[in-house]
Amino acid sequence: MSNPVKPKAAASLVIIRNIKNKAEVLMGQRPKTAKFAPNVWVFPGGRVEESDCNNKKIVINKKVLKDLKKLNSSSSLSRGLVSAAIRETEEETSLRLINNKLDDLWVLARAITPANQKLRFDTKFFVLNSNNFTEKIIGNGELNNLNFIDLYKAIELPLFDITEFLIEDLIKKHENQINNQHFPFFWRYKGPKRIISRPNNT
Q1: Structural domain of residue 60, as residue ranges?
Q2: What is the pLDDT of residues 73-83, one digit of tens each?
Q3: 199 Cβ contact partners less than 8 Å away, ≥ 6 residues apart
Q4: Which of 17, 86, 149, 181 qualifies as a FRET site for 27, CA 20 to 30 Å off?
């Protein structure tokens, strides 16, 4: 029996927009021609590159660094994760940061692809408000139908199980059923069993 493939470090950015107490999230649809998960809706994101870890331009708040340390990320990798999330978002959507101070950035979750998959990622998900970015969305072809979608409509789209869980949590947070003490959570599998750990052990 071969050993599981080592997960690659990756990051994803969940951009939230609030209009008249309605929460929306930026998502795109994977092309129908994609070999893996065609037509599935996802957040912008991708692998961490070496250059991301050396990015000194962005300012990461202490809470984000503390949460990433809890999720076993070194200071260098933490910078790389945040930088990758921002870079991949700009590449896939053309949205650029208005400034590099990410005061309201927070860590939503860590998720590791199951060990039986050939392509595996250790992904950190971050949340940032849309007012940190320029407004015009122009896709580069990696994702189709890029747009802000109401959370209650997004949950009905074709999604990965982790994406569905993330949106469910964002809905609960929007409805004040849960608060920031529930994040970041850690999602992984032990065999077929899904394990979810939260800071408050809920």
Answers
A1: 8-197
A2: 999 999 999 99
A3: 70, 181, 182, 183, 184, 185
A4: 181
